[in-house]
């Protein structure tokens, strides 16, 4: 059974940093693009960053220059380093996978809460 387990969320003041981690199991990790999404109360789910097995990573304009996505294929993990956090970054952050060539994300983690205070 595929499982994605996120960790690293918490409460931080504006301008601070957090590092989120997602551990994947039950899948051939290198066959999947990995991504971080977030959803704030009353807002739609938003793609934050995406990293393929090969190729360039993607970042939303709102986080570009502040967040960095990375993956460790030996450990089946994907991380999201978040710097210069803003209150508008407050959301539940989800790890997700997309199989090579697929158009939809097929696996989702349970989410980890990130709260940025002023």
List the helices and strands and how they pair.
Layout (H helix, E strand, L loop, with lengths): L2 E5 L2 E4 L4 E8 L6 E8 L6 E6 L6 E2 L7 E6 L4 E6 L8 E9 L7 E2 L3 E6 L1
Parallel strand pairs: 2-11
Antiparallel strand pairs: 1-3, 3-8, 4-5, 4-9, 5-6, 7-8, 9-10, 9-11
List keywords for this structure.
single chain, 118 residues, mainly beta, seven-stranded mixed beta sheet, four-stranded antiparallel beta sheet, 0% helix, 53% strand, globular
What does this structure look like?
This protein has strands spanning 3-7, 10-13, 18-25, 32-39, 46-51, 58-59, 67-72, 77-82, 91-99, 107-108, 112-117. The model has no long low-confidence stretch (mean pLDDT 96). It has no helices and eleven strands. The chain is mainly β. Strands 2, 4, 5, 6, 9, 10 and 11 form a seven-stranded mixed beta sheet that branches. A four-stranded antiparallel beta sheet has the order 1-3-8-7, with no helix packed on it.
Radius of gyration: 13 Å
How can the largest sheet be summarized? 7 strands, mixed
Percent of residues in beta strands?
Answer: over 45%
The helix-strand sequence is EEEEEEEEEEE
Query: Structural class of the helices, strands and pairings?
Result: mainly beta
Through-space gap between termini = 40 Å
- Overall strand count: 11
User: What is the percent of helical residues?
Assistant: under 10%
Q: Helical region count?
A: 0
Query: Globular, elongated, flat, extended or rod-shaped: what is the shape?
Result: globular
Overall average pLDDT: 96
Low-confidence stretches: none
């Amino acid at each position: 059974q595929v499982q994605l387990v996120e960790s690293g969320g918490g409460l931080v003041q504006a301008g601070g940093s957090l590092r989120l981690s997602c551990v994947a199991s039950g899948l051939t990790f290198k066959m999947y693009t990995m991504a971080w999404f977030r959803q704030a109360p009353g807002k739609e789910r938003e793609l934050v960053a995406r990293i393929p097995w090969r190729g360039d990573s993607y970042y939303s304009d709102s986080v570009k220059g502040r967040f960095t996505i990375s993956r460790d294929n030996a450990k089946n993990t994907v991380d999201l380093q978040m710097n210069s956090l803003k209150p508008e970054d407050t959301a539940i952050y989800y790890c997700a996978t997309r199989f090579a060539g697929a158009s939809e994300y097929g696996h989702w983690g349970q989410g980890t809460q990130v709260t940025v205070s002023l």
